[in-house]
Amino acid sequence: MIQSYTAKYIKIDAGYMGQLIEWPEVVTEGKDLEECRQMLRDATQEMVLAYQQQYKEIPLGNSLIEQMPVEVNYVGQTT
């Protein structure tokens, strides 16, 4: 069965950090976005195997992520 997960990527000094939204324990880093994606896929497959061996429930995927605009006024900031 194919399960889809939602990946979040953050630019860091060393490249990119990737993490699954639905499964926050799956996190990795790569020197560029493509390497980070591949490493995140590999880490996810390893976690699936580990969870299966431990008879743990594998988190469900298919989250919906959206941008939510919020007005933020900083103290001392002029507009």
UniProtKB/TrEMBL annotation:
<dbReference type="Pfam" id="PF21748">
    <property type="entry name" value="UPF0150"/>
</dbReference>
<dbReference type="InterPro" id="IPR049389">
    <property type="entry name" value="TTHA0281-like"/>
</dbReference>
<dbReference type="InterPro" id="IPR035069">
    <property type="entry name" value="TTHA1013/TTHA0281-like"/>
</dbReference>
<protein>
    <recommendedName>
        <fullName>HicB-like antitoxin of toxin-antitoxin system domain-containing protein</fullName>
    </recommendedName>
</protein>
